[in-house]
Amino acid sequence: MRRFAAAVVVAAIGATACEQAPPLSPYDPVVHAADVEEWRAWRHGELTKPDGWLSLSGLYWLTPGEHRFGADPEADLVYARAGVPPHLGTFTVTGGQVEFAPEPGLEIGVGETVPAVDVVFDRALLADGPMAPTIMRWGDLQWFVIVREDHLALRLKDAASALIVGFDGMPNFDLTSEWRFEATFEVYDPPRTITVPNVFGSLGEEESPGAVVFELNGETFRIDMWHDSDDPENFFTAFGDLTNAHTSYGAGRFLWVDAPDEWGRTVVDFNRSYNPPCALSPFATCPLPPIRNRLLLAIEAGERVFSTSVELPSAPPVDADGV
C-alpha cells in the first residue's frame, strides 16, 4: 500500500518550464471508493496481526538492577493475563546493557526457533540503529527491548490481547470526495529540519524532504512530510485539525501521500488518514503534529476516534537508565 518513489521527486525538480503536463485522469468515484476500501482492509489486517498495534500490552521502563517479569503481582514487571506464568524470567540492567535470563525450566524462544539461555541487549544497537531488536517469545507473548527518550524500556505484545480479541473494526467517517485533493509536492532543497513533538512532551527533529500543498475554497494549505522508516521512498506525516478531541483522536492523525509524478503532482486523500498507535494503546510512543501541520480545518474524513479512555504512555522515570 505504500506507493512512493523518490525518483519522481528528483524528476519533478528537473522538469523544464516549457514542458506541458498532460491532464490528470478524471476523478472516478467508483475507483476512489475501491481504493479507500482496499486501504481500510489492509489497515484492519495490519492492526490485527499477532504483532500488530492492537497486540501492544506493556511498556516497562528499565532502571539499573534486576527485574523479575511475569504474572506474579509481586514481580517487578507484571503482566497478569490468565495463563501467563508467574515468572517468565529476569532482566538485569547494567549501564548500557540489558541481560535476560529465562525462568529455569521454562521454554522461551528467541527469534523463531532458538531456545533462550541468556540474551544480552546492547543499548548502542537498539537506539534506532540498523540492528533489529532481539524478540523473545512464550506462547502468545513476545517482548523486546527498545530505546525511547534516551531510556531503555521493555515492550510487550500479546497476540491474545483483549484489544485484538474484541476488535470489530476501526470507526471511519463516511467516504467523501470533499477531502480528496489534487496537490503538488514542494521539494525542499536542501531538506529542512523540522521540530516534531511527541507524547512525552519532548521535542525531536526530523528531516523533511518537502511539503504537499493543496487548495480549499481559495485558501492554500501545506503539510510538511518526513520519513517514518529507513525507506527513503516512504513519505509520511502527522497532522492536526479541528475535529481532534471531538470526533477524531485528540493528538492528531497520521497520513501517507502517494509520490508525485514528474510534474510534481500528487493527491492528498484524507479518507486514508489514520489513528496513531497512541490512540489505541497506552503502551505506544508516538510523534505529534508539528506546528505547521495543525490545520484550521475540520477534516471529517478518515479514521474517527477509537476510544475516549486510552491514556497516554507513562514517561520514563527520572532514575531510568539513560546512559
Keywords:
single chain; five-stranded mixed β-sheet; elongated; 33% strand; mainly beta; 323 residues; Tumour Suppressor Smad4; disordered N terminus; 17 strands; 2 domains; six-stranded antiparallel β-sheet
How many angstroms separate the termini? 38 Å
Q: State which percent range the strand residues make up.
A: 25-35%
Helix content: 10-25%
Shape: elongated
What would your notes on this structure say?
By secondary structure, the protein is mostly beta strands. It folds into two domains: 6-48 and 169-293, no CATH class; 53-165, Sandwich (Tumour Suppressor Smad4). The protein is built from four helices and 17 strands. It has helices spanning 6-14, 29-47, 123-126, 162-166, and strands spanning 56-61, 65-70, 77-78, 89-94, 97-102, 109-110, 114-115, 119-122, 136-138, 141-148, 151-158, 180-197, 203-216, 219-225, 236-239, 253-256, 265-269. The strands form four sheets. A six-stranded antiparallel beta sheet has the order 1-11-10-9-6-7, with no helix packed on it. A five-stranded mixed beta sheet has the order 3-2-4-5-8. It has a four-stranded antiparallel beta sheet with strand order 14-13-12-17, with no helix packed on it. A hairpin with a 2-residue loop joins strand 13 (203-216) and strand 14. The longest helix has 19 residues, at 29-47. It is elongated. The chain starts with 5 loop residues before the first helix and ends in a 54-residue tail after the last strand. The model is unreliable at 1-17 (pLDDT under 50).
